[in-house]
Amino acid sequence: MLLRAKVSIVGSEPAIWRLLDIDPSLTLDSVHDVLQIAVGWRDVHLHSFTDTDPFVRLRAVNGIVREPRRWVSQDLLEDSDDDLPETDWTLDQILCPESGPMFYEYDFGDNWIHRLELTGSVPAPANAPRARILDGARRAPLEDSGGIYGYQDLLDALADPDHEERANLQAWVAWTAGPWQEFDPEQLDIDAVNNELALMFAAPSANEHGPGSESLTQELTNRMPTGLRREFRSYLHAAGLDGPATVEAEVAEAMTAPYLWLTRRIGLDGLSLTAAGWLPPTVVRETMTELGWAKDWIGSANREDQTLPVLQLRESAQRLGLIRKIKGKLVLTSAAKRLLNDPVGLWLYLAKSIAHRHRHDSERDAALLLLLEVAAGKRTEWADHLEAVSFGLGALGWRSHAGAELEPNTVQTLLVDTYEVLLNLGIFDGRPGPEVPTIKTPCQAFARAALRS
Fold this sequence. Notes:
The protein is an alpha+beta fold. It has helices at residues 28-40, 74-77, 147-159, 166-177, 190-201, 216-223, 226-238, 249-255, 257-266, 281-290, 308-319, 334-338, 343-356, 361-376, 382-395, 408-414, 416-424, 441-451, and strands spanning 2-9, 17-22, 47-50, 70-72, 84-85, 102-106, 112-122, 131-137, 271-272, 323-326, 329-332. The relative contact order is 0.10.
């Protein structure tokens, strides 16, 4: 049998509620996970279960006031002698026909109280999920919005075009809600919630075992906080990662032109550097001219150390594994030799390299999140890309040395190498060169190829 229970946030008007079928044998720590997913919280605050409403004073019966029972996680249990371990109690031990409702409190600052009321029980069909949502209304309130009354005040302010704080509140909502799902207080995607609940209880599949067995996006998703995975998965779907990840030969040649030019100029015999270790001045001038960069460059463009586009291209090609320096010469790697006359192969090679060749895991995560933004094609301003990547890095647990959220300039530093490649490929504006189609399709296809590599 499955218990059928109505979950509602106390004080919400209009009501925020869910109707759930749930396995009565689940321990309360698992019920906590179910409620987080079903309601739409992000599981970033403490919680507890009680058998009485925390805000209602119990009346004495025969002069005795019954002490409410409270179930908490192991972290809280260590600081209390009266609380009970949520891992040792199952749902049907507390919520049954003979009992009243039970209550779930999330975030002891905002005090989100959820009332769980048993409405009946139903037979569990074969292979029935251990928890699923049948019906409901409205998304969860925003985290840290000040409790139910603070959240209602926030919605009222957002609905009032004359409210003096409306612009500031809109900015706060955009940051808090995040870049992967538009904030809509009426939104509830029951299918997405049930998919997340099914994944919560699913046995690990064969391809989830062993290092390197997960796709890049699976690995990112699994590292996200539980409460953010549904939103992140929805954004992955919106980004069309199952869409085309191929390119026509002429488009590949235009996009990879800087790397093709440099590797072909170095050639199979290699290219001798100056005594100081720089590209010869003639090669620097050739590169700037052939790639169309000279017309917008102020200066003689013949010294590599003073001609940043050429220097950055060379360093980028080295990081990507196309060239290396040996005994005063630049030589092609075996991969570059194979790709000298294969622009499509080079395009695919760069897609794989940009996803995997990084000096630090934080740079890799930043690169993958930026590629996801390119694949989605929702944002056009670099500042918006930075903000989206910053949010994702925070969700993945990256912080400054002081424990603070990463500032935009820090995120930009993490993206320097990736941005340079995308700039060379014409995915971002800022560098003239061979004509690259202005349509988004090749750029999005490149990002998909990288994320699926």
